[in-house]
Amino acid sequence: LLALLVLAVLVALIWHVTRKPAAPVEAVPAALAEDKPVKPAKGSQPARTEQAPERFEFYDILPNQQVLPTRTPENRPAPRPRPTQTASSQAAPAPTGASADAAAPRWLQVGAFRSAAEADRRRAQVGLLGLPARTQAGSDGQGTALHRVLAGPFNAIDSLEAARRTLAAAGLDAIPLSNPGVEP
User: Fold this and answer.
1) Total tally of structural domains belonging to the chain
2) I need a labelling partner for 31 at 20 to 30 A (CA). Which of 50, 51, 99, 139 fits?
3) Residue 29, preceding peptide bond in cis (omega within 30° of 0)
4) pLDDT digits 0-9 by tens, 7-32
């Protein structure tokens, strides 16, 4: 009896949702259709702050940014055989793992939020895990304000991976970055 009642309610709900499609939009309102620049009022000057927070534009940062892949023993490719080296290739040796690790600090992006309060909450969560964290204000290409949370800097990949495991254990996703556009 209860199953029939649930089934009847489910059928009624499906019928109600599918019987009337949403009305299509005929035209874009005139206020949204035209892009008119906003002119500031005469005699008004923008407010100046003592120290402007760091700003970022995704389209400025992304070309200079490299996302580091996660490397685990399960997903490492088999090593490729190396060709024999000639005298010219021996003259300029590639940097070793230790010197490449020390070359550039790495960061973990722990989140990007539209609200500064949400970003501060995430920064506090990361701080409670014992990791250094900071927020960075900026905007996307549409002009929408974004606040991202960065953990770091980490000078060694081992410390970056340890921090990433700590964040994952706390249920926080993190993306490794080599150049997020901030100074350590």
Assistant:
1) 1
2) 139
3) no
4) 999 898 887 777 766 666 565 555 55
